[in-house]
Amino acid sequence: MLVMFLRRVAVVFPHSRRLLSSNSRHDVSSTIMELNKEMESVFGEPPSSYLANSVSDEHLAQEPQALPQKERESSIGLTHVGNTGEAQMVDVSFKGSTKRTAIASCKVILGKKVYDLVLANQIAKGDVLSVAKIAGISGAKHTSTLIPLCHNITLNHVCVDLTLNPEDWSVDIEGEASSTGKTGVEMEAMTAVSVAGLTVYDMCKAASKDILMTNVRLESKTGGKSGDWSRQD
């Protein structure tokens, strides 16, 4: 009987080899059912449930189980990370265009000596606040070049304001960016204030190396799927 069974398997197996090596769950199940029928016809009874299921379970256990898209997004939570952990640019083609704005801020602590020089416009490189303002606007327009996974978007408006603060001898910087499109402008606003702050440091570094750039942060944003948001201090 064993010889008879092996002869019958030899007929079935050549057609089943491709199926057994396939990644298709349906094909593997069909092949196992066919072999079970051959065993029943030879031995007069079907194989035990343990034997019949063990091969299928072993094969399926080796298959990577992909999570549904919604569950995958909630478990990862990072849109710039792909299914296998690789960096990716987010596809926004399916999104609708909306009006989007973002406001960011930054502080550059100068110290009293440098503060007085900036206030009197006595820094050797020139007008610190004017140069930093232009640098911040330019920086916002180059965000996608500086930060590789940011989208190259069309900005409607960029505004950068720098204010001398005598309470802590600092420069308070605020930047606002706006656009009508499929992705937000938070990074453009934050890049604007960051580049403006770095420019203040560059303009003043000859007078002091103790200058501190700090508190780069998003203050608020509007538009997009996530809606409006503002910082609550």
Give your account of this protein's structure.
Strand 2 and strand 3 form a beta hairpin. Helix 1 packs antiparallel against helix 2 and helix 2 (25-43) runs antiparallel to helix 3 (49-62). With 233 residues, the chain is α+β, with helices and mostly antiparallel strands. The chain is 45% helix and 20% strand. It has a 5-stranded antiparallel β-sheet, covered by helices on one side. Residues 15-22 and 66-76 have low confidence and may be disordered.
Spell out the blueprint of helices and strands.
Layout: H1 2-20, H2 25-43, H3 49-62, H4 69-76, E1 98-109, H5 112-119, H6 128-141, H7 143-146, E2 157-165, E3 170-181, H8 186-204, E4 212-222, E5 229-230
Antiparallel strand pairs: 1-3, 1-4, 2-3, 4-5
Helix pairs in contact: 1-2, 2-3, 6-8
Overall 3D form: elongated
Order of helices and strands: HHHHEHHHEEHEE
Terminal-residue CA separation: 82 Å
Strand order of the largest sheet: 2-3-1-4-5
Oligomer: single chain
Give a quick summary of the entry.
This protein has helices at residues 2-20, 25-43, 49-62, 69-76, 112-119, 128-141, 143-146, 186-204, and strands at 98-109, 157-165, 170-181, 212-222, 229-230.
